[in-house]
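Saturday, quiet lab. Running sequence design on the structure tokens for the scaffold JK sent over.
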């Protein structure tokens, strides 16, 4: 789906017009996927746009870069990039909120599988982006299938990072699910435990207990995942990180996905088995999540960075 252009994209200190923000066709990241990125959202609030968990996202970007030298040689700190992002949102005038996409790639100048001689290039774009899995999905839930593609192994590509090329794995699973008539794929780890969605973490509710796979089963340490766990515990629910197998999903009372793009999306069906409409636990956590990102929950005000 095309997304709306903004006025400017930030490229290593320069504000470049959207249409002029290009890289050379021999930029090595285009060929080998060696780069890292983040996905961040700003939401409209009564006090203007506010970015949800801005610092943790920027910190994760720089952690991902540390996994992929020489991307870790970027000359920016978390504080620098936080300021750049806030300025860019102001310059682009995203009063109603936006999606923010920073990426650190290998700049043009070297080609070949050795990334070390390349110079990193940092690019940050913003645009106004609606719901990822559809407005209706937030209420009625999505239909998912367990993918035949396994989530990248710990010693294949580090699952803790967000590297551009690793999303081949997610996209293969996504295409398989879409072509089979589902909305989203759930990926198992190499040893058969539930890992996560293609760009979302996964939760189930069984007998009132909320369960999510532990990081050693391969999911990304999602920032929305951590927020949902805190909200759920503060609402009085028991939340456990525990390994799950596919039958745990089939037998769940409720299931939902979390992520910056997908926000908090209920799952209504898995592999042709009905889980049901959005359940009461999912609905409560989702409602608090929505109020939080809109700046309506005092307790979580420090999760937001107001743009103005
Ligand atoms: C593979 C994967 N899992 C989970 C998530 C959700 O993470 P977050 O809540 O930090 O956006 C993402 C998105 O960044 C992702 O790419």
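Result came back. Writing it out in full:
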């Amino acid at each position: 789906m095309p997304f709306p252009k903004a006025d400017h994209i930030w490229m290593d200190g320069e504000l470049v017009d959207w249409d002029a923000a290009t890289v050379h066709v021999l930029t090595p990241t285009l060929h080998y996927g060696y780069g890292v990125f983040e996905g961040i959202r700003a939401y409209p609030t009564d006090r203007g746009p506010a970015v949800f968990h801005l610092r943790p996202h920027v910190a994760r970007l720089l952690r991902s870069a540390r996994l992929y030298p020489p991307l870790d040689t970027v000359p920016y700190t978390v504080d620098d990039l936080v300021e750049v992002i806030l300025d860019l949102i102001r310059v682009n005038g995203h009063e109603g909120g936006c999606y923010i996409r920073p990426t650190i790639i290998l700049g043009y100048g070297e080609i070949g599988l050795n990334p070390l001689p390349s110079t990193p290039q940092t690019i940050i774009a913003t645009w106004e982006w609606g719901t990822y899995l559809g407005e209706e999905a937030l209420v009625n839930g999505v239909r998912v299938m367990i993918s035949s593609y396994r989530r990248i192994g710990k010693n294949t590509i580090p699952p803790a990072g967000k590297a551009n090329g690793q999303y081949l794995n997610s996209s293969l699973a996504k295409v398989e699910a879409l072509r089979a008539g589902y909305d989203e794929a759930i990926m198992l780890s190499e040893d058969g435990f539930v890992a996560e969605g293609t760009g979302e973490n996964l939760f189930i509710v069984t007998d009132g207990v909320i369960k999510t796979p532990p990081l050693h089963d391969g999911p990304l340490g999602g920032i929305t995942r951590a927020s949902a766990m805190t909200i759920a515990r503060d609402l009085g629910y028991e939340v456990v990180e525990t390994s799950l197998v596919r039958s745990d999903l089939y037998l769940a009372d409720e299931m939902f996905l979390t992520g910056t793009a997908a926000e908090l999306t209920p799952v209504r069906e898995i592999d042709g088995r009905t889980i049901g409409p959005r359940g009461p636990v999912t609905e409560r956590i989702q409602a608090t999540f929505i109020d939080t990102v809109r700046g309506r929950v005092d307790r979580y005000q420090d999760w937001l960075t107001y743009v103005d």
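Notes for JK: Helices lie at 28-32, 54-67, 78-92, 135-140, 167-179, 223-234, 246-250, 280-293. Residues 161 and 169 are 13 Å apart (CA to CA). Ask whether to fix the surface positions before the next round.
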